[in-house]
Write a structure and sequence with these properties.
Elements: H1 2-5, E1 9-13, H2 22-33, E2 38-42, E3 47-49, E4 52-55, E5 67-70, H3 77-87, E6 91-94, H4 100-103, H5 108-119, E7 123-125, E8 132-134, E9 139-140, E10 155-159, H6 162-173, E11 179-184, H7 193-202, E12 208-213, H8 219-227, E13 233-237, H9 242-252, H10 259-268, E14 272-274, H11 277-286, E15 297-301, H12 304-316, H13 326-335, E16 347-348, H14 355-367, E17 373-379, H15 382-403, E18 407-412, H16 415-424, E19 429-430, H17 433-454, H18 466-478, H19 485-494, E20 502-505, E21 520-525, E22 538-542, H20 545-560, E23 570-575, E24 581-590, E25 594-601, H21 604-607, E26 612-616, H22 621-630, H23 634-638, H24 648-664, E27 670-678, E28 685-687, E29 690-693
Parallel strand pairs: 1-2, 1-5, 2-4, 5-6, 6-7, 10-11, 10-12, 12-13, 13-14, 15-16, 15-17, 17-18, 18-19
Antiparallel strand pairs: 3-4, 8-9, 8-11, 20-23, 21-22, 21-23, 24-25, 24-27, 25-26, 27-28, 27-29
Helix pairs in contact: 3-5, 7-8, 8-10, 11-17, 12-17, 13-14, 14-15, 18-19, 22-24
The protein binds adenosine-5'-diphosphate and magnesium ion.
Length: about 700
């Protein structure tokens, strides 16, 4: 991978001697910014571009270049790559488009590229991308001119889109952020974001990694890497809605994927997810400061109005504006004697006009263990206070380093002044209390999620009876039918769960004395219907044998009258579970992220409020508990308004087991336990219904 960022020599295919075509731009750009390595072109005419030699065949290049860059039409690429292979070139960047994004399912060109790559063990970036940039090495593969080449940047950027990536490289510079390295992934035929993430995690010159993605190719691998990464990772993942999928498909062949799963995975791995360019830039800036380790904030404000705005913004993000202690107030009185409006948090600095006092008060606030961070509103006149404000900023930077707490500064002045400060001053400043509070929120959330991630505890010690699961799968395959409810419950049992006591009656049998305690429920077992109550296939609260027989008889009759009567494979008689809160726990396999576990309350909570918690499986008990706490309905489980708490421990155990089962048993495509009736604390839960799908027997 190193060669892609620090190549000693580059050869560009598709370099015209006469036209300023893309190939020529790449060569000229590198010459202009002072690329220290050797440059070569390959084109239809031999000659020179500004002293850069151009050949008609790569074989004529007098050395083996480290990287070959393609800007020739798609259909020419495989043959030219073959030439590169012969020459001994192992690193290829295909900037040309026109591969799968136009051929709609006809992947032959891409297959050819992959075949040549495999033959010569080549590493390939793209196609349809702009390649890499390494600022310190003064090397740029994109076909766009760059003038400012900052050195010493410690931000690495990965972008699926060259256009967005290029614009972000320029945009961050406007906020005083220096990018160090950049990689565009394009169609990710071979190398993808996971490869670059891996490289940047290990790169000693990268402190922060930011990604713009339209889709995850190997979501699970990304997740595993991100979860183990101590550097902050920021992701903007677009293509969130089905509507975007269409354009993204023709853009970089990205599939939109399930956005809820993406969100869950990023959160679980403590990746900072942002939605737009400004959030992207602000997140990059704020993680460059010490992290906010809690949510207690001190607000210092040169304007009363901005103090109020800050209080609103802080409240919105759940920050606690802890009152200043008496000792701090006493100190304030010794620092200045003028009228200060009120000694409260937010502190209105009112009529003070002395920059040393600002710095002293800020330092006193930072010293207090009561606060995890500071929001400072600096309202000033550019004409009179511009120079002082810059000195003040430098002082703030020192204090932040000394006390290891973030200070988010709101600079409120003329627009030109702010643009200049943002571009030229290394310390990040924000333009409104809302923006500054949002940045502190990113910092606090990141550190919370990072701790949660790093302290998630051990995975469940899990054993499951694989034989039983395989036998059930075999039976459904042989019978060419779905898994029946009793079998699905047996799968749960194989994972160590205890479904309610039950027995099966074959369709034609009349039950004799049953070994269950009344009251019981009876439900239809049918390969044609897994949603039983929808078709009248469930009867509950049957108090004796007579009621049970009547229920079965009535059910048979009603089912036979349906327009499409379902096959009757039998009936499941279950003991009635005692009352409790009906929850559901389900799992499925995401194409990119693998096994996913979902939990929530049953009934309207899930249907109307869409109140569910998602995590990638398997989960630890701490993560499972986190899922429950995420639910809007959590107070119901925790006990509220005179109701005692439910047996969350039992539910957590069940979530862990189902998640471990999904992970251990790739044959299970989907599993759905609904309802799981959770009883009061100490009384466990009752599992009364389950559905399990193996491949090829999805409904
Ligand atoms: P389906 O989901 O296929 O319609 P269920 O087996 O989930 O069928 O039953 C429907 C509802 O009946 C459940 O949500 C639950 O409220 C109730 N129920 C079913 N079996 C029992 C049982 N053994 N004890 C208590 N309630 C039950
Ligand atoms: Mg059900």
């Amino acid at each position: 991978m190193e060669k892609f960022f620090t190549p000693d020599s580059l050869v560009v295919f598709g370099a015209s001697l006469t036209n300023l075509n893309l190939g020529q731009i790449v060569l000229l750009n590198n010459r202009q910014i002072g690329y220290p390595g050797r440059l070569y072109g390959v084109g239809s005419q031999a000659g020179e571009i500004n002293g850069i030699p151009v050949y008609t065949k790569v074989a004529d290049v007098p050395e083996v270049p480290d990287v070959a860059i393609f800007l020739t039409p798609a259909q020419t690429v495989p043959a030219l790559m073959e030439d590169c292979g012969q020459k001994g070139i192992t690193h290829i960047v295909i900037e040309s488009g026109g591969f799968s994004e136009y051929s709609h399912g006809d992947y032959t060109l891409e297959e050819e590229v992959l075949a040549v790559a495999a033959k010569y063990r080549m590493k390939v970036i793209g196609p349809n991308c702009v390649g890499t940039v390494h600022f310190d090495h003064k090397m740029m593969m994109p076909f766009a001119f760059f003038k400012d080449i900052p050195q010493g940047g410690r931000l690495s950027l990965i972008s699926q889109s060259g256009g967005v990536g290029g614009s972000y490289l320029r945009a961050v510079a406007g906020y005083g952020v220096k990018p160090g390295k950049f990689a565009a992934t394009g169609n990710k035929l071979q190398l993808d974001e996971v490869d670059f993430l891996d490289y940047f995690i290990k790169d000693p010159k990268t402190d922060v990694i930011a990604l713009y993605l339209e889709g995850f190719k190997r979501g699970r691998a990304f997740f595993d890497q991100a979860r183990a990464c101590e550097k902050p990772i920021i992701v903007q993942k677009s293509n969130r809605y089905p509507e975007s999928a269409k354009i993204a498909q023709s853009h970089t062949t990205a599939l939109s994927g399930d956005d809820a799963v993406v969100g869950a995975a990023l959160r679980q791995a403590a990746v900072i997810r942002v939605d737009d360019e400004m959030e992207f830039i602000n997140a990059i800036r704020v993680v460059g400061l010490p992290l906010m380790k809690g949510r207690r904030v001190a607000v210092l404000s040169r304007s009363g109005g901005h103090a109020v705005l800050s209080a609103d913004a802080c409240a919105k993000y759940g920050f606690e504006m802890v009152p200043f202690p008496e000792s701090f107030i006493e100190k304030l009185k010794t620092i200045y004697k003028t009228r200060v409006i009120a000694h409260q948090n937010p502190l209105d600095l009112g009529e003070i006009f002395d920059y040393t006092i600002f710095t002293t008060i800020l330092e006193e606030a930072l010293k207090l263990d009561l606060y995890d961070g500071v929001l400072f509103n600096h309202l000033y006149s550019a004409d009179f206070e511009g120079a002082m404000s810059r000195t003040f900023l430098a002082g703030v930077e020192k204090l932040v380093a000394k006390y290891q707490k973030p200070v988010c500064l709101t600079m409120i002045s003329d627009r030109e002044e702010i643009l200049d400060v943002q571009k030229t001053q290394p310390y990040p400043v924000f333009t409104s209390p809302a923006e500054a509070a949002a940045a502190l929120h990113v910092s606090a959330t990141y550190s919370e999620r990072k701790s949660a991630r790093n302290e998630r505890g051990a995975l469940y010690d899990f054993y499951f009876d694989q034989k039983t699961v395989e036998e059930i799968r075999r039976r459904s395959l042989v019978g060419n039918r779905t898994v029946l409810t009793d079998e699905a419950l047996a799968v749960c049992k194989a994972a160590g769960l205890q479904p309610v006591k039950s027995l099966v009656i074959k369709g034609s049998q009349t039950p004799g004395r049953i070994s269950l305690h009344y009251p019981v429920a009876v439900k239809l077992l049918s390969r044609d219907a897994s949603h039983k109550s929808d078709i009248g296939g469930v009867a509950v609260n049957l108090r004796n044998r007579r009621e049970l027989l009547e229920a079965i008889g009535g059910m048979k009759e009603r089912l036979s009258l349906l327009p499409h009567p379902p096959a009757i494979d039998g009936f499941l008689v279950q003991e009635m579970a005692p009352a409790g809160i009906e929850c559901f726990v389900g799992g499925r396999r995401d194409p990119a992220f693998g096994p996913v576990i979902v939990a929530g309350l049953g009934g309207i909570f899930v249907e109307i409020f869409k109140d569910t918690a998602i995590r990638l499986a398997p989960v630890t008990p701490i993560e499972a508990q986190g899922m429950l706490k995420d639910l809007a309905a959590w107070p119901l489980l925790a006990g509220a308004r005179g109701r005692g708490p439910a047996d969350c421990g039992a539910l957590i155990d069940l979530i862990c087991r189902v998640s471990a089962l999904l992970d251990a048993c790739p044959d299970i495509v989907e599993i759905d336990l609904n309802p799981v009736i959770v009883h009061p604390e100490g009384q466990g839960l009752s599992l009364v219904d389950a559905r399990v799908f193996f491949p090829a027997d999805r409904e």
